[in-house]
Design goal:
Two copies of one chain form a homodimer. The first copy, chain A, contains nine helices and no strands. By secondary structure, chain A is mainly alpha-helical. At the A-B interface, helix 6, helix 7, helix 8 and helix 9 of A face helix 6, helix 7, helix 8 and helix 9 of B. The first copy, chain A, binds a DNA duplex through helix 3.
DNA sequence: GATATTCTGGACCGTTCAGTCCAGAATGCA
DNA sequence: TGCATTCTGGACTGAACGGTCCAGAATATC
């Protein structure tokens, strides 16, 4: 009944996600977050509980966005080509800056393992959802279930590796080559109609 | 000329490396390190400068050990089989506990990117040395130079991915399968005499 | 055994952290 | 216009951080 306005919660969450994405959970201080989100301490604690709760929501948001990117790539395109496009996009799309930030889920799994197992496990679970998305895609491409499972795990392996590469100083072309190698090698292993090249 | 004894510097460094390996740079507090190393604050600062200097030495130690493992695997064994053994060992060898800690270099590249670029770059440079070791191995296996470069990058990609997997809750068998898939797929791509399977 | 030199335990420092709290600003309703 | 209610900036708190310092323990030489 009074002062119904706040800030835009979704926008603030999006900003917070970028801070965690770039700096990691521990190095993202409250002042860092507040400055980027453009709100004050009280507002953050009222809206998100605490730093850890905010992080959990950021992990969910990141996973949702990742799954959306995959779903969009699948729209009206052969499944293998969709996967290739997903990987290409993941390497080329810097969030705005000049340097890549990798994958928030991968970053968090590594940073928080043996530090906050709950956070690490939460990120790992979201990563498993993405892997399930790969598997779905491969079944669509004609893989028998057992092989779809195996190759989805392999694709997740490559995805994880790429996200590490993107935080090393490697030039963009090197990562593109790694993707090309992966799909060249992968196409040869799939007994269905292969994608281009 | 007086009190020449200290603690064993190498042993202390080895202990410190394990703490950084398990917990990461930021979460490893001085009390954590001192307790594990069994020395006191003064001794640490006298011997290693500061926390960051200690970390740099730990990164070097880890890289040296990793290269030694690869060199030992190459001894009297076909190069491709040596690579496979290197990966198998890296997955099976837990440092003592029940959970895997991944790779200190990979962990550090991710954790410290955009937080302490110097540390991240140092770890990345050591990772490049390991990649050069892969490349050397592949040339030995009969790969032409250009392909050795490409496949070494691919192997490093897989290595990075595996180190992430090992910090997720995935069962050991899943990671073994990922390695098997990788080498099955890799063998098909090498135009030399392939390794077993 | 005395002394000079080096090492070590632990108290101490300023800084920064995540989280709490309250006074005051802002708004919907009457 | 005035009140009830909700939001917000910023001061504040206790704890933990990395790093410094010094008094005292320990030893090689004489």
């Amino acid at each position: 009944m009074a002062r119904p306005l706040e800030f835009n919660r979704d926008a603030a969450l999006d900003r917070a996600m970028r801070v965690f994405w770039r700096q990691g959970y521990q190095a993202a201080s409250l002042p860092d977050l507040l400055a980027e989100m453009g709100i004050s301490r009280s507002s953050l604690y009222a809206a998100f509980g605490d730093k850890r709760g905010l992080m959990l929501e950021c992990l969910d948001l990141f996973a949702t966005r990742t799954l959306q990117i995959l779903a969009r790539a699948r729209d009206g395109q052969p499944p293998l080509e969709a996967l290739r496009q997903f990987f290409d996009r993941s390497v080329v799309d810097p969030p705005g800056g000049k340097a890549e930030w990798g994958c928030l889920l991968v970053n968090t799994v590594l940073e928080m393992a043996d530090v906050d197992d709950g956070l690490s496990a939460h990120a790992a679970a979201r990563l498993a959802q993405v892997q399930a998305g790969f598997e779905d895609c491969l079944r669509d491409a004609g893989c028998p279930p057992a092989q779809a499972d195996e190759l989805a795990a392999f694709l997740m392996l490559v995805n994880q590796g790429l996200r590490v590469s993107s935080r090393r100083a490697q030039p963009l072309q090197a990562r593109r080559d790694q993707i090309a190698t992966t799909f060249r090698v992968l196409s040869a292993a799939i007994p269905t109609e292969a994608s281009s090249t």
